[in-house]
Known about the structure:
Elements: H1 3-23, E1 36-38, H2 46-51, E2 67-70, E3 77-84, H3 90-106, E4 112-120, E5 123-131, E6 136-138, E7 140-141, E8 144-145, H4 152-159, H5 174-190, H6 198-211, H7 223-237, H8 254-269, H9 281-294, H10 305-314, E9 323-325, H11 332-345, H12 349-356, E10 360-364, H13 367-378, E11 386-389, E12 403-408, H14 421-431, E13 432-443, H15 453-462, E14 463-470, E15 484-491, E16 501-505, E17 511-514, E18 517-520, H16 528-537, E19 545-548, H17 569-589, H18 591-602, E20 608-609, H19 611-615, H20 617-623, H21 633-636, E21 637-641, E22 654-660, E23 669-673, E24 678-679, E25 683-687, E26 695-698, E27 703-704, E28 708-713, H22 721-732, H23 746-749, H24 758-787, H25 806-814, H26 818-834
Parallel strand pairs: 3-4, 9-10, 9-12, 10-11, 12-13, 14-16, 20-24, 22-27
Antiparallel strand pairs: 1-2, 2-3, 4-5, 5-6, 7-8, 13-15, 14-15, 16-19, 17-18, 21-28, 22-23, 25-26, 25-28
Amino acid sequence: xxxLPNRISERRTEHLLAEILDAQGWDLRRPPQGExxxxxxxxxHPHLLEIFKHSxxxxxxxxxxxxxLVDRAAxxxxxxxxxxxxxxxxxxxxxxxxxxxxPCIEAGFSPLAVGLAGTKxxxxxxxxxxxxxxxxxxxxxxxxxxxxxxxxTDLERIASLHxxxxxxxxxxxxxxxxxxxxxxxxxxxxxxxxxxxxxGVVGAIMLGxxxxxxxxxxxQKFILSDINRACEKAFWEAKKSELAKSLRVDxxxxxxxVNARRIVSILERLNVTILTAEYDYLGQLxxxxxxxxxxxxxxxxxxxxxxxxMMADICEVGSSDVVLDPACGTGGxxxxxxxxxxxxxxxxxxxxxKIVQKRLIGFDQEPVTAALCVANMILRGDGSTGVHRGDCxxxxxxxxxxxxxxxxxxxFPHEDTDVPPERFVERALEGxxxxxxxxxxxxxxxxxxDGKGAWREKILKTNxxxxxxxxxxxxxxxxxxxxxxxIVLEKGVPHQARRQSVFVRLQYDGLTLKKGVRxxxxxxxxxxxxAVDAVLNKKxxxxxxxxxxxxxxxxxxxxxxxxxxxxPLDVLKENVDVLLRRLTSFYTRYAPEIVAQRAAIERxxxxxxxxxxxxxxxRLQRATLHPSKPGTIGGAFDILYGMxxxxxxxxxPSGRSLIISPTEAYNGCYGWLEFEPVSKxxxxxxxxxxxxxxxxxxxxxxxxxxxxxxxLPKKGKGMPQARLVLAAASLLLERWRFNYxxxxxxxxxxxxxxxxxxQLEKWTTERIVKVQKVISVALAAYQDKQSSQKRPxxxxxxxxxxPLTPEQALSAFMQVDPSKVQAAERKAQKKRRGH
Length: 835
């Protein structure tokens, strides 16, 4: 009669264990995909069975532990886990875990022993122990036994024989936090809480849970009121009583009262209730977790902490600085300044808090955001910092001329009524002392637009431009796709005519976007340290940084001042493949139209001319004024604008003429209109708007609109298709220099180098031949329909038309065994006959 309750208890314990492990990012699948083995799964791993052969829960005989965490590659034990359903059985659980871990240690491994007691997610106990060479000792945090299973990084750090048993926890991986955030978002959505209020709810629960040490009643009658009281107490203790009511949950929300229990459980799994501020785990968790649950739902794009830290490093923030953020949001820049001081002085966080209490100043007029900022500081041991709920433009507390450093990311305007970033920059400068430094994130367009030239000139009359850093394009994704840059200014020192400014292109910041979350890059590329070094030491590094003189209304766009670097061969080849794939997609998508246009030209029904004839002498003369050094775009091509007649396509009916416009799809093909003359190929087109910087090789007669440039091989100089493709691939490498603020012009692309070597040209030629064979198959079926209508005339076709069977062409392009392709073709024919 007791078997069924026991099985239920076992299942509940297994579920609880899975929850605890999942919260710390362990992969619960079986090896080699995952990292967890359960009792019934050891038989697949004889070396583990051999280890446990003479062990049991009672010290002798055979037995198997409840679960083992393993290295998925070597299947070596990392932690041995024993679980009991009753909370009073914790000592027994850890004792049995040790008895299983001991033979592992004797076999040369160093696993931890983990005992778990309990079945409910909010009523359990857990201990972790390690063998120190003479005895089993508790793994501790702040001198007390930990009550969680460490994540993989922490476990590996403390497991070795000579490592200390005191743990310094690390924040879970971004994808782990993102998964927890998804669940919390779902629970808040089910509770009827709108997007813009979710950050406040998450912040209130986290602060209240931490301040109370987990002493919150989980019953739905009390849980919300207990959270509010604990959260309000935290603000009073931090002497921020004016914000005590700003961060709270709605106690009348019955659905939230039900779901809050699960939200609290998630946060408890991440150790919110038991950790101190000393190691900054709580603060990092707060910022990172809040980012995933809040995003830009309250109208702000919060600066990633590693970028805020970079800006603090560039301004060389020290313990004597007064740091101001006029639009502080949740306080990321103030935290970065605090952390830099902490590491610079090598002091404890408590000592550091005393230093910075009056040296960190922030303003935010939105009460919830200001409260979230104060909460951020409280979780790092200091809530009494100078964070003000107020408008930096009107507040009487604004410290005019007091700060030595300003770090800021002003809100990006969405409407004409919003405050433009220029005003925030000017207000920030007002807060600085003479020779103080400002580092601010602004839209890149502000640095290049002609309409902002007067503002840039005004800034340089009374301040100096130290540096401009262009940020990675995906920095604020998935919440925003804004192109941003950091500018660094020195206040009160007019920009001298000979002063050099540093320009940096920060392409890799150590993270990449994966499934809507920015996670660490697998290749480890991170240029932040190099960017700080380039600014502080004024370094010229082709492709990365440059030192240049700016004055007056000059653009501050990074792309204007950094020399081109020799491209990596693999990147150039990748660009070649991209171009050829787009070319192939064009021919396969528009095969009927291509054949029809060719036939119309051959019959004389459609006029095709050299673009030099169409452009006229004045345009050709202007093209001769562009730089034309050997080995560059200007040295190989005449660069002309497209046709103004196609600027607007309104009133032009559909027809047989190919139209090229600034689009990325189908080799720049806009469509087919009734328009002539078309231009004889071959040439390269480059988009000036839309998909700015996208370059394509045009091998069919076409008309190009004036949002594109036309690159014609120099007159009298034949150019093989491979060189055309490599020129276009070289242009793709430089498209980062242009955006809607900095236009792509003939003058600006003329000096770009073309990367061509005999080996690369040979490789590209081979790729083109394979592509041509595929294209010939796409066109063949439609060409037969036009053949009976042909009359003698010019032959404008550029793409070769070798007669190939579909399987031969596919084999050539895919570089696979022809016999396999033939077998696939026979299978396809059989299927067609079946239909």
